[in-house]
């Protein structure tokens, strides 16, 4: 029997605490981060996807499964599909008025996610970080940070292998008199700054902290500021990159700048 997946576990936690906003946010964060198999009518191409659409009480749903075995168990035959992160599928469905049928009939996380929830997820994921102008003046050890945020940061950074080397979280005061917390990231690869900043922003959003802010700076290992933040900051070590695998044709949706279109 197939073991529960991380998505099953997040769904069970949400179901067990229906009044908990934190549990609901953790489920939708997991949904966004999970690679889902989207059931298609025809084989995918690099430009377009043609998903199967099912009507339930007048509402359209596309079907997604968090393992290929679950998709096969539902369909009962070979069927075309596209493996895409949940965030990509949500953003593709934005404005389409369609919901997500998750793991229907094949898993404890079977759930009809309504169109308004999909639209909310797409909008939430679309809110990127903003640039600031204030300059840091003093750094301190971090304090009074919710455990939910630390857990979310640890999870996001843990999935950022090969994008950077380390991160340091510290409290900070700025030259304009404001105070807050800062995450200094070292060893970021070229082009990784934007996805890393979005990941940190999502950790803040999905941790459920209202009106929270967490500043992100990218530092070189030899920057004097790196030594300052390393002395007082909480350190996160990002995973070492895995051995490179043999090159394969790019899968649909693998390039975030060129997502496929739904027919």
TrEMBL record:
Residues covered by the SseB protein N-terminal domain: 8-120
Pfam assignment, any one: SseB
Chain residue ranges for the region called Disordered: 238-263
InterPro entries, per database record: SseB_N
Top-level taxon: Bacteria
Protein name in the entry: SseB protein N-terminal domain-containing protein
